[in-house]
UniProtKB/TrEMBL annotation:
Matches recorded under Pfam families: adh_short_C2
Organism: Pendulispora rubella
Keywords: NADP, Oxidoreductase
The name this protein goes by in its record: SDR family oxidoreductase
Record flagged with keyword Metal-binding: no
Highest classification ranks of the organism: Bacteria, Pseudomonadati, Myxococcota, Myxococcia, Myxococcales
Length: 267
């Protein structure tokens, strides 16, 4: 995960991380990196078999791994998994809000239920995890990190539901930073652009032609790797970011600067 890492070994030794959506994609990469850095990691997903497989993958990087299952839209079930993590790994030092849903569609092609599902998973799920975890956070010293996307600040065609949900996550991040800072809880977000080898990227760029157009719209002319996003998450969870609070950090190769919302990146 971190052959190019600048961080010292054991950076998160003894700390507990709870990661929603931690069974795949970006969040699984973060789970592996945090385990490698010494953290006790709890990954949450909806599918028990998928969660078990992901936990085995994370254990290749560190021994203290717990897989739990719940839907982030179900507050009571989510709170129960957080208590289970607390019993196994102690107070939560790092909460990663990564559960998300996405599908490309024009606004007129999104049903009310489809729009609501994405907002419920992304935004309501993020609030639920933050609200349910607060009493179990190690205060002061805890860190909350939500995974947004560049769609949260730049409008993107075919993504009305995601843009709305991610914009909500980013404003929630800023409000919680105001309210929770006095308790010593740092709250930030990462807004990745396209990340290779993820389900989201396969959905948004399903053909080589669309993938090529998307790549050309990125100033750095490539997508991020999961390992690069994990390194940014590790930075924000580290003492090096001790005074970063209420920030949404874009990690997109300059994509948002290019005004991708009006580009024909989806064909």
């Amino acid at each position: 995960m971190s052959t190019q890492s600048i961080f010292r070994d054991g950076l998160l030794a003894g700390q507990s991380a709870f990661i929603t959506g931690g069974t795949s994609g970006i969040n699984l990469g973060i789970a592996c990196r945090f385990a490698e850095a010494g953290a006790k990691v709890t990954i949450l997903g909806r599918n028990p078999e998928k969660a078990a497989r992901a936990a085995d993958e994370v254990r290749a990087f560190g021994p203290h791994v717990l897989a739990v299952t719940a839907d982030v839209r179900d507050y009571a079930a989510l709170e129960g998994t957080i208590r289970t993590s607390m019993d196994a790994h102690g107070p939560i030092d790092i909460l990663i809000n990564g559960a998300a849903g996405n599908f490309p569609a024009p606004a007129m092609g999104i049903s009310s239920n489809g729009f609501k599902a994405v907002v419920d998973i992304d935004l309501i799920g993020t609030f639920n995890a933050c609200r349910a975890a607060f009493d179990y956070l190690r205060k002061p010293g805890a860190r909350v990190l939500s995974i947004s996307a560049t769609q949260g600040s730049v409008p993107s065609m075919m993504q009305a539901h995601v843009c709305a949900a991610k914009a909500g996550i980013e404003m929630l991040t800023k409000v919680l930073a105001l309210e929770w800072g006095a308790a010593g809880v740092r709250v930030n977000a990462i807004a990745p652009g396209g990340v290779e080898d993820t389900e989201g990227m396969r959905r948004l760029a399903p053909t080589p032609e669309i993938l090529a157009k998307h790549t050309e719209s990125i100033p750095l002319r490539r997508f991020a790797t999961r390992a690069e996003i994990a390194e940014v998450a590790l930075f924000l969870a580290s003492p090096a970011a001790a005074y970063i609070h209420g920030t949404v950090l874009a990690v997109d190769g300059g994509h948002a600067q290019a005004g991708f919302g009006t580009a024909a990146v989806l064909g």
